[in-house]
Design goal:
heterodimer, A: 475 residues, mainly alpha, 19 helices, 0% strand, globular, B: 214 residues, 77% helix
Chain lengths: 475, 214
């Protein structure tokens, strides 16, 4: 029974609302562990769903699910210590909505139905909005408002796009179920005009949620105002969920023989996002916002790679996995920095190497990973994408791509150097780095590092299965 | 030529759309919204291809949520915090009404060029759906008021529902119900944030929400 993977955190989430704080924390970690176990079982056995019309185990879904599950488990361990340090007023709300958020994201990965996918993605917005408002400040209120309005309107566009896709079946006189597997089979006969219109609307809709420019404006605010564990979840897994929606639609486009059309649009949106991130990262003065812009950059890279096709899609999926692992570790480290310095501005931090050596190791190696130092994961992914771009003959796009990556690298490095080695301006209180607040980051980074050199066969096979469906592969 | 009852209903919706361009006060907008919600949930009953018990029950639930619960919850949210009821507009009302007229004419013109089964039976269906959608977006952008933004969002959703429920019969009730629940929960969350905005800034003018940039 596939559905239990998202029902378990759903029930646990509602239970937490009625529990005392300490019990809630235990349930958070416990549910994380159970969820990871269930996901692993699902990965091994690949059972069919009870509601087969709506849910299914797909390779691309399993990839995202495993990443979500691993990340959530590690983040939940960190969260427990973070909550002890930060004394939130509304802690049960926070833990409860973390679990509901996990449930809705799991539902996204397992849904195999055009409309159910929409329902699940909209539900992730609703479950995560209270997380952003945790600090109850006027700035976090503004961030939440922006997040809810922009994402709701964006996702309404995706709903309209889904309606257009059903319309494209109507016009062609087809009668098929609305599951992605069924749609992919009949894609060739669907009316191409309405299918294209539907794709554009869905790309704009889920692209809003994924943080593609110019619809990205909610992302830096939400990521910087949310508590760090929530930011780690938002950046590490929520963006992937939205990408999964685009991936699935792209599958239909590929089957319909419209991959050129969808690819070009994806490439343009991807490049715009990378360019937007480059302009804002250079003069950024808050470290959490800097990380958020880096997420926009990486989502742009992933969209660009998906648009190129062939080996580029493989690169995009590699980038997606490594980005999740590394970026969530960076956000967790930023939580330590916030607790240690009590400030979000880069200029008020400094001398991290002496004051928080363990966090420094995690933060700096995370930076090396995300900026694309060879031979780490993101670098490999980007290399595949660049090779793909040259093979497909997109020389201009590839040139812009490489140039902006260099700009972002320089800007990012500059800020991280300031944080790590500049002398700190003010003497903040001593911050003790607890083991449970650095080990999750180490494990995340180590996983990413291991995956660069050794990829288990089953993982490799799943990635290849996922990307061949939209015309990707290592050839 | 006799108009189909659906077209009569939809012509009223088009009229209400024009009104909402000119509405300068929040309570009027809420009433218009409730009316549109009711019509939008009734239309599928007339265009429906199958008239089973299930779809009647579903229509009643949709009617209750779109026509009553959602407008009521916004009404309550406003009442609770005693928000000033005048809207401040970025685009003036007269200009707005002209925009609305142009929009309706354009939507009707486009609709006559589309070769869709549902559109040829009910001539006002497509213009009404598109107009609702665009009007919602217009309210989102052209009114500097957080409540008007929520109302705009719901209007958009009504337009999409009108399109989805009549153009295609595939999205069946369970799924539509899920979508409805999502929208409802979204509006509830927006209403809660509205109250918090009012408490924090003592106003719902979105000009206050400009501190986070870059």
């Amino acid at each position: 029974m596939v559905e239990i993977v998202f029902l378990a955190p759903l029930i646990a989430g509602f239970l937490v609302f009625f529990m005392p704080k300490s019990l809630g924390r235990q349930l958070l970690v416990g549910t994380g562990a159970v969820h990871l176990l269930l996901s692993l079982i699902l990965w091994q056995t690949k059972p069919s769903a009870l509601l087969g019309e709506y849910f299914a185990v797909t390779p691309e879904g399993m990839l995202s699910l495993l990443v979500i599950s691993l990340l959530f488990f590690l983040i939940s361990i960190y969260t427990v210590s973070y909550l002890k340090e930060s004394n939130l007023q509304s802690e049960t709300m926070f833990t409860g909505f973390m679990l509901l958020f996990l449930s809705t994201m799991t539902m996204v990965t397992l849904s195999d139905h055009l409309m159910v996918l929409w329902i699940a993605i909209e539900a992730t917005t609703l479950a995560s909005a209270p997380l952003i408002y945790t600090y109850r400040s006027s700035a976090s209120l503004e961030a939440t408002w922006k997040y809810v309005i922009i994402c709701s309107v964006g996702i309404a566009m995706a709903l309209l796009g889904s309606v257009f896709i059903t319309l494209s079946m109507d016009v062609a006189g087809l009668d098929s179920a609305l599951s992605f597997s069924a749609l992919t089979q009949v894609a060739e006969k669907m009316d191409p005009l309405w299918l294209k219109v539907g794709f554009v609307f869905i790309l704009v809709g889920y692209g809003t949620k994924m943080g593609l420019a110019p619809m990205h404006t909610w992302l830096p605010d939400a990521h910087s105002e949310a508590p760090s564990p929530a930011s780690a979840l938002l950046s590490g897994v929520l963006l992937n969920c939205a990408y999964l929606g685009i991936f699935k639609i792209n599958k239909i486009m590929h089957a319909a023989g419209l991959a050129d059309f969808s690819g070009t649009i994806l490439m343009v949106f991807g490049l715009m996002s990378i360019l937007a991130a480059a302009t804002f990262i250079l003069k950024q003065n808050e470290y959490k916002r800097m990380l958020a812009y880096s997420s926009i950059e990486n989502m742009g890279i992933i969209a660009f790679g998906t648009g190129i096709g062939g080996i580029g899609i493989y690169g995009a999926v590699i980038c997606m996995i490594h980005h999740s692992l590394i970026k969530s570790s960076l956000f967790l480290s930023s939580g330590n920095i916030l607790l240690g310095y009590g400030n979000r501005l880069i200029e008020n931090t400094g001398d991290m190497v002496k004051r928080m050596p363990k966090t420094f190791v995690a933060f700096f190696s995370g930076f090396a990973g995300i900026a694309g130092f060879p031979p780490l994961g993101i670098f490999i992914g980007e290399l595949f994408i660049i090779v793909g771009a040259f093979r497909a003959g997109h020389y201009l796009f590839a040139g812009i791509f490489i140039f902006t990556l260099c700009v972002i690298f320089a800007g990012f490095a500059n800020q991280v150097m300031k944080m790590s080695f500049n002398s700190s301006s003010e003497q903040a209180g001593e911050f003790k780095e607890k083991a449970s607040m650095v080990w999750p980051q180490y494990i995340l980074l180590l996983t990413s590092l291991v995956l660069c050199f050794f990829m288990p066969d089953t993982l490799y096979q799943t990635i290849v299965d996922a990307v061949t469906a939209i015309g990707g592969g290592l050839k | 030529m006799i108009l189909h009852p659906v077209d009569t209903l939809l012509s009223l919706v088009l009229l209400s759309i024009l009104f909402s361009y000119g509405a300068g006060r929040v309570p009027i907008l809420i009433k218009l919204l409730a009316f549109q919600g009711i019509v939008v949930s009734l239309v599928p009953l007339f265009t429906g291809h199958d008239m089973e018990g299930g779809s009647t029950v579903f229509t009643i639930i949709t009617l209750a949520i779109r026509g009553i619960i959602i407008p009521l919850s916004i009404h309550l949210a406003i009442k609770k915090v005693a928000i000033q009821r005048e809207l401040s507009a970025i685009v003036g009302y007269k200009a707005s009404i002209i925009c609305g007229l142009v929009l309706i004419v354009a939507a009707t013109a486009i609709s006559s060029h589309l070769n869709l089964a549902a559109v040829s039976n009910f001539r006002l269906l497509f213009p009404a759906a598109i107009s609702l959608l665009v009007t919602g977006m217009f309210l989102l952008m052209a009114r500097r008021n957080a409540i008007a933004m929520v109302i705009g969002y719901i209007m958009m959703e009504n337009g999409i529902y009108l399109m989805g429920s009549t153009f295609s019969v595939r999205a069946r009730h369970i799924v539509e119900f899920g979508i409805l629940l999502d929208v409802l929960a979204g509006v509830m969350i927006m209403a809660i944030i509205l109250q918090n905005i009012k408490q924090t800034f003592d106003d719902v003018d979105t000009a206050h929400l400009r501190t986070l940039k870059e």
